[in-house]
Queue: 3 jobs
Job 1
Amino acid sequence: MIATASATSRTRIEEAKARFTIPILWNMLNLPGKPARSCRSPFREDRSPSFSVSEDGLHWIDFATGERGDAIEFLAKIKGISNAVAFIELLKMVDGTTHQPATPHNSARTEPRRGLELDAIERCSKADLWEIAKLRSIPLNGLRLAQERKLLFAYQDPYQGRCWLITDDARRSAIYRRLDGKRFHYREAENGKKEGPKSRNWKGSEANWPIGIAQAGGFPSIALCEGAPDALAAFALAYAGAVESLVATVCMTGAACSIHTDALPMFRGKRVRIFGHADEAGQAAIQRWAEQLEGVQAEVDGFFFDGLLKRDGSPANDLNDFLAADHRASGCGIEVITGAADFALERRGVQ
């Protein structure tokens, strides 16, 4: 089942729609014509008026196509993005400059037992962030937050080209992917193969090390994810739910891994939501990690994607799919996006 949003999330949704009505968005986007009870569609060439905006500006209907919706769906259709991404953009407009990525000053960090040789990594450029955003359908706000937390970096591989990489201050593990989204390729003489995996562990990495736990000390809650794309998606969800100052993102490199024994004490007393993959291996990982975390008195629950569909109609398998899914077609409201991060508020008694 899919977790539901709290009253706090629903309030933010209604605030966003009320402040940025369809006429306001129409003007901000410099769309032709004027919104009215009877006007031409801004979505397509419309010879005669077949479009209507309600008097309060909260809803629209296209009589020629039968489509209808609210401000979120209006923004999504105009910009060709998912409703989830449109909602996050709307929240950014509402919050303006007051909604900034925050890192608690008391954030605890571990000293590396042995550091990986990561001198070659560098800060992501604006172009790098744009490429990741387009490739993974993750809003830039989430990527900037990951970069602010010193978990997201870039790397110029001499053979594979530009890559993006996640690691933490412990420098015990790092995983990276090609910026163009393609698989790593082998040299022709290597094993007779030309195409490799999508993700690679940095040489010397401890695969069981939960990347991000070194930066999680000052946060009461943790989003525990499987794989680097889901980790970036978790940052975007925390930002969308306005709980980025409460939630640390922690990434397990794969479903086959167990949480490193050195890292388990760092989860003690935290509220942890596990975002595992929907496949058999992912479900087994959720159970394994939950049992480990309960052993250090962490509060644990899971988030599942049952019934959620991607735009092509196939089932959503992971958190990155969830962020870019067609929530309307799946029969669940856009408030589910912020509900995914509401576990951070429950700890503080916010309902």
Job 2
Amino acid sequence: MNRPSADWDRVARHVAGELSTAESAEMRKWLDANPAEARAIAALEAATKQLGSSTPVDVEAALRRVKTRLRPAAPWRMYVALAAAAAVVLMVGRTWFSRTPPGSGTAPAEYATTVGARDSIVLADGSRVLLGPASRVTVRDRDVELVGEAYFVVTHDAQRPFTVHAGGAVIRDIGTEFSVHSDGSETVRVVVREGAVQLGHPRDSVVLSRGDVGTIESGGRVSAARGAATDDDLAWTRGRLVFKDASVVELGADLRRWYGVELRVTDSALLRRHFTGSFLNESPSHVADVIALALGARADRRGDTVYIRPVAASK
């Protein structure tokens, strides 16, 4: 009888220390029931720790480099893959040391994800980043430029502030965990899970604390909703895409990053409507149909473009 295989994404997030309390409990049960895999995962954890805090570590990239060469159904192959990932992490770390002169931590590094994919990164200062789909961060020491969406667990240093730049906004750490959502024409949105951040713009700024949601509109107006954060705000870190009274513009930006499709809506009445709903691993066609139905319209897909049209409109 085959034992259940591991969730690669969850393994990587476990090693990076990004699991929630509930997820950590589930992972511990799985490890207790699978001692061979537990030893391999422990080796991977030891490899990342051996590198210390001076090297960025992309755990999921290491896993991807080996898991595609193995059949995941066989438990012993899982063990081999994890052991190989540990070796890759060590090799990458040593290569970084050999190519990066001491004290050159300000050299920029760029990390990016593809459509529908997330990735976790450990930065040189020990801070962790969970990068959303089709997103990119450029890191210069403790200064980060973000396009897309990311969740940050920051190692606080009062002498060296950790700063995120996104869509004209500047988010400065005051010892915290927070997410930032920025998709070009959209409002920049910051959700604080722990601690506090300063959300600023050349025209205004506000300090956000645990549970607060801050936004910066396209015109530069900064606002804060105290205690307004919910579990849905960070559902994307668990792979679930949630919309709450979302505009067509917001729908289009997120569908582009998560599913690689372009949303086209030209009807003025439909453009004024909003959508509430959530998706987890559904196909792009199903997502388009659900959104169209909720908007009182229909969806026509042509390649990577989805046209949302009034029901009575002719093709």
Job 3
Amino acid sequence: MIPLPPEREDQLGVEAEARRRLSERPEPAELPSPRQTVGAVVVTFNDANHIALTLRGLVAEVAQVVVVDLGSKDRTRETVAERFLGVPVIPLPLEAGFGAAANEGSRRLDEPFLLLVHGDARLRPGALERLYGAVNDSRRRVACTGPRLVAPHGVVELSAGFRPTRWRTWRAAWTELVPRWKLLGPRRKPKRVAYFAPTVRTDVDWVSGAAMLLRRDAFDEVGGMDERYFLAYGDIDLCLRLRRAGWVVTYEPRARAIHLDHVDENPGSRRAARRRFARRHGALARHLFGHD
């Protein structure tokens, strides 16, 4: 029998010791089901056409669902009351805004995790489990995670991003003025618009408020959503405040949500929100975030 070289014997000894240590490591604790720990706040505004399908999936996956309606003129509230007897509907005037609706709904729930969903967003099967796994990453203080948003016709929407810097803002403005396909020629023009959309879980500065899963303690620590934002920039402001408080915001693209519709905010309200955001965070984000 040919003896092994000393360095090979040392390597085998190190490998055996590593296997022994791995075998002695305790099994990770099994996470409780989202059916026990997640409460959902669904903010609606004229969503009668699709609120039934949205709630049908949520009531089977989370512990409790609360609907906060912002002055719908259609049968949104009636549809919820008729088809989902156990789901409370909290009416608010439209002027209250989506931030106030999210805060009001969160106060009605006791679960340690909050799922904030707009009435025009529908989580795909398996999305909540992936988001739940991401926010329960024991190695880091993950406060918030969001899925990839896809329009009904398949185009990836702006779902996450980074805090604006001077370089990113100027680069985005230049790209808007001179798209890449103009430099490459008309034959290279893309057929589909694609925003920032990595294929693996990625730490980001913000995720879209159309659908996000949050830790209740982190949400309460930063004071919830700023109710001075009606819609635009409110979700980004929340995520940046979480980052400043030492929490992690992550984007989970394997979790998908269909964004069925969009709410058109008043241009004056968007401009006021942009100015407020700039005063707080020191950067204008028109080109980066896609708001006017």
